[in-house]
Every structure is written in C-alpha cells, then in structure tokens.
C-alpha cells in the first residue's frame, strides 16, 4: 500500500542522512552546526510543517511505518527550531498509539538535553558515548523497556553523570551555549 507523502518523507530523511554522511567524511561536523546541514534541516522542517498542515502528524496509519520514522528523523534533526520540536513532541503524545515509541523517547530526551535538563531514557550521549544525565538512574532500564529500548548494563548506568553535573557539562563548549541561547533552547 502506498500512503500520501510516504515517498517524499523518506526521500527528505535520506537526503538529510546523505548530507550528514558526506560532511562527516569531510570532517566538517566536528566544530559546530555546519551551515549546509542547518539549511537541510530547516528546509526539511518547513516541508514537514506543510505536510502536517494537510494531514496532521505523520503517524504510521497515515504515512506508513518507514515514512513515520522519516518524519521523526526530520523532527529530531530540526535542532535550530525548539518550538517546532516541542510542538511535534506534543503531537506525538496525542498520537502515542500510532507512532514508534522509541521515536517519542528520543525526541523527549533531545529536547530535555538541549534545555539543560536531565533526560528520561538515556538516548542522548556526551563524550565517550556516556549518556547525558538522567532523571532516575534506578528506574532507567524500566523506562527504556517501556519504549522498546535495550537495557543498559549496571556499569553503563554507573558512568552516567548526576543531574547536578549538568551545568559543568553544558559549559564545556561555549559555542554550544551561545548557539542554544541564540535559537531559544536556553
């Protein structure tokens, strides 16, 4: 079965990943938000807004599972548009029964981290592949299980910094702090 906007959403997400892969191979994603990547993200978010204006949130039943995941990727990468990401998260909450629960978990965590708050599911990482601080280490695997994410080992959980360390983590990269203020995360 073909769904409205299915192929377009998948193509937008694939283009995002193709550009990301090329820029990463060229070493251009290591220092800040690359202008070309930002342009792709903004254009994709704008097109997704237009699609959502026609069909609402692109749930699995509306666009198919692959395209719904593609829409999530577009949202997850629209990091320069905090209000758009938050609005999409609210729409995911409303449609929780018709989306991939992992996608909602990743978006929740990303929003929290950009705001300098602890995450719930441990999906967003800091240096060394260690998760950014979480709301509740003791219940982390329980939360991950609810959204079909694999459990973390006790060693991995033990390495996660505590929430009170967020200011120190956040201020390691002043360019990141300036960018977050400029776009409205903080």
Please provide a written account of the structure:
Pfam families: DUF6624. By secondary structure, this protein is mainly α. It folds into two domains: 99 residues; 69 residues, no CATH class. It has ten helices and two strands. The protein has a two-stranded antiparallel ribbon. Helix 5 packs antiparallel against helix 6. It is globular. The mean pLDDT is 96.
Compact summary:
The protein is 60% helix and 2% strand. It has 186 residues and is mostly helical.
Structural key phrases:
2% strand; two-stranded antiparallel sheet; DUF6624; mainly alpha
| Lateral arrangement of strands in the main beta sheet | 1-2
Rg calc: 17 Å
Quickly give the structural class.
mainly alpha
The best one-word shape is globular
- Which stretches are poorly predicted, pLDDT < 50 over at least 5 residues? none
Number of domains: 2
The whole-number mean of residue pLDDT values reads 96
Tell me about the largest β-sheet.
2 strands, antiparallel
Instruction: Write the H/E string, N to C.
Output: HHHHHHEEHHHH
**Total helical elements:** 10
Measured between the Cα atoms of the first and last residue, the distance is 43 Å
How many β-strand stretches? Answer: 2
Helix percentage: 55-70%
- In what range is the share of β-strand residues? under 5%
